[in-house]
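tokens incoming
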């Protein structure tokens, strides 16, 4: 599946490399064969994965990675918001994990405008500038939601999930954007931290928008994390209770920040496995 929107300008070396890699990954995965199994045990082993162009903030054309099952049917959509290290291999693998489990996932490259050759260079550029601008990020996430909602294979439901800075952006999006049916915040740094760490690009604690939360929220945290710390998580939970929101929070022992990240020393297999179970239960309840 390709976007109907044309890319802007000449194809850069970075975009060409990304597209080639995505096509190879999609071909290898689809080549594994197989279709959906019986209901209740479905695994969509045949899938496609590719880089598309989508309209983001203020109509900008940016890259996004889309992974979906190839078996006929209607599927829920998930917007995957990447962590501060960027639009990297581990994040794109998360999108494919959702496709394997019967979701159409889109992961927009929120660092696309930095224009560097690698996710690491883009991330360094964003950090130096004070983080991702909230207005631009919300524009890109809204564009990803609209991309999914335009697909004829969508079942009508869209969820969002994010990690690290992406978890913060999930909370902000769930409180300020339309068209979201369920949200998952994986250790969103800065939510509940008050003025600590605010910048001109990120001028508000997303917690301040909690009264506007428009969908059920699942939060997954490590008890050894510093941002968000257990105190930040407790403050967030108190605010959700205050406004009568639908949510579930789970915090894991012996886990800190980035415990889902398979390519990092912080990876904690037990916490990550339990977390993925919670995620699919949550989406199964609200997106199916």
């Amino acid at each position: 599946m390709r976007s109907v929107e044309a890319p802007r300008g000449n194809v850069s070396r970075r975009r060409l490399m990304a597209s080639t890699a995505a096509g190879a990954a999609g071909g290898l995965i689809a080549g594994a064969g197989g279709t959906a199994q019986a209901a209740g045990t479905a695994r969509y082993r045949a899938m496609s994965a590719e880089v598309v162009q989508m309209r983001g903030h203020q109509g900008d054309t940016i890259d996004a990675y889309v992974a979906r099952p190839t078996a006929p049917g209607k599927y829920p959509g998930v917007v995957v918001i990447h962590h501060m290290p960027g639009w990297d291999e581990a994040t794109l693998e998360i999108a494919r994990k959702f496709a394997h489990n019967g979701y159409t996932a889109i992961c927009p490259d929120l660092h696309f405008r930095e224009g560097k050759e690698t996710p690491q260079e883009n991330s360094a550029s964003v950090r130096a500038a004070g983080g991702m601008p909230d207005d631009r990020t919300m524009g890109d996430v809204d564009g990803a939601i609209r991309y999914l909602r335009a697909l004829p294979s969508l079942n009508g439901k869209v969820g969002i999930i994010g990690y690290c800075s992406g978890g913060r952006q999930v909370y902000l999006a769930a409180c300020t954007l339309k068209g979201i049916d369920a949200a998952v915040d994986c250790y969103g740094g800065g939510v509940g931290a008050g003025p600590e760490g605010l910048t001109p690009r990120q001028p508000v604690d997303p917690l301040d928008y909690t009264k506007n939360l428009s969908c059920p929220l699942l939060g997954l945290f490590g008890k050894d994390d510093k941002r968000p710390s257990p105190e930040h998580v407790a403050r967030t939970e108190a605010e959700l209770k205050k406004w009568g929101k639908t949510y579930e929070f789970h915090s894991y022992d012996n886990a800190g920040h980035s415990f889902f990240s398979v390519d990092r020393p912080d990876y904690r297999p037990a916490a990550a496995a339990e977390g993925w179970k919670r995620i699919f239960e949550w989406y199964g309840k609200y997106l199916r």
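note: The beta strands are 47-55, 61-69, 75-81, 104-108, 154-163, 182-186, 217-222, 247-252.
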